[in-house]
Amino acid sequence: MSKAKAPMLWLALALAVSSCKKEETALIADDHFLLNVPNNMPAWVDDIENPLTTTGVKLGRLLFYDKRLSGNNQISCASCHQQDLAFSDGVALNNIGVSKQPLHRHAPALFNLLWANNGLFWDGGSTNLESQAFGPLTAFDEMGQDLNALEVELKAVPEYRTLFEQAFKNGITSANVVKALAQFQRTLISANSRYDKYKRKEGVVLNAHEMAGLALVEQKCKSCHAGELFTDNAYHNNGLDQSFSNEHEGIHQGRFRVSYQAADLGAFKTPSLRNVMLSAPYMHDGRFKNIDQVLDHYSEELKPSATVDKALFQNNGQLGIPLSLAEKNAVKAFLTTLTDEEFIHNKNFSNPY
């Protein structure tokens, strides 16, 4: 979920969740959720302080689609994270929040968060999914919810009372709301694209054009879009800008606003290439409308600055990743093989209401 002009309150709430996690672990020992992770994906470790449970995942899914989580009861998490768009929203800067003001950052796609172990938000300002959720929940430009009022609303729903009592020792609390949301989001695994089936030798063959694109991605893009996740979960200045304003609490400065390390100025988190053909527009501010603009940026339009990532100096030491028109078309052909149709139609992830 994106974060824009969020109140500082969420930081305190995030710390509260972190400090009380161990006291609120799931109750039912035999309620462990069996997560199906295909064998070409990395190894994973369940969160010891918020382990996946069947009840917790079910509860998180209900909450993800419930508009009661917003202050005006008109917006759910799914309003900005739509399954058919790989849980992205299809617009550059959304303005459907409580304030009706446009956000300053683009809502990212949500999948494979099970492996998101190096910070969340575009700048890594949150350390885990539990604390991250407080940002959009409380931000006036997003869901604008008073957390005490939310607890009262949820306690008025018999099904929620039952599920919370089964999943957590102390029932309905705002901390347990975000824990349930985190459990559901960790089940959003996308690993059944044509590329995956090709890798697992499940009867899928990539054509010559797609294979040429795969080779180009391996050669020119894997320094950031690494491994089977197609992201290194790290932060890079990818040559979008030459100056970095400190307006709006410094959100245009990227990772620097969190780390205060000069090398992080203008560095934003690497998004996965998986489902990339579904998740336009692109970049942290949604400035590129289509994948062609993205490829043109990397090959011809990178802007120099002191912190531009060294991996982008590929053109005989010059800034830029050389790509001919034919090569760009091959890359696009390969990127289509990363679209996971099973993921975007999986009924376990869809609106339960």
UniProtKB/TrEMBL annotation:
Keywords: Oxidoreductase, Peroxidase, Signal. It comes from the Bacteria. GO terms for molecular function: peroxidase activity. Its main location: other. InterPro entries: Cyt_c-like_dom_sf, Cytochrome_c_Peroxidase/MauG, Di-haem_cyt_c_peroxidsae, MauG/Cytc_peroxidase. It is found in: Cell envelope. PROSITE patterns: PROKAR_LIPOPROTEIN (PS51257). The keyword Signal applies. Pfam families: CCP_MauG. This is Cytochrome-c peroxidase. The lineage of its organism: Bacteria, Pseudomonadati, Bacteroidota, Sphingobacteriia, Sphingobacteriales.
